[in-house]
Amino acid sequence: MSTTLKNQNSIQEEIKSRLKSGNAFYHSVYNLLSSSLLAKNIKNKIYRIIILPVALYGRETWSLTLRDERRLGVFENSVLRRIFGPNREEVTGEWRKLHNGELNDLFSPNIIRVIILRRMREAGNVARMGESRAVCRVLVGKPERKRPLGRPRCK
After folding, report:
1. N or C: which end of the chain has fewer CB within 10 A?
2. pTM (2 decimals)?
């Protein structure tokens, strides 16, 4: 796996490729996840252990916009809908898709929350590093000189 960093603050292509990889891993374990013999908590663990790490690789470098968060949420809901399948109404006996609220109840930490928690954990790891490490110097460093006044010169 590799992460592509660009000089712009745009990570849409990176997120797109990560979601493609997550989808590919979902299809590789489709037989397990579509089995009615496995309990929902086992399917939940498979999703959390196999699919999520692939989809969230390199997430520490992502600065998410609302559009990116929505795209990640749609990916998560679609995979969870495919994993848990339709729900049968008790009164009418009809089958229907699970609503987003029901999916959130089945899988409590949503993908955006997972990203934020892992980013905070990574920031804590960097903060505990020694001052000699380059990553820590970038995090807590200060500029050595002030920027000049005015608009930058055209080159």
Report:
1. C
2. 0.73
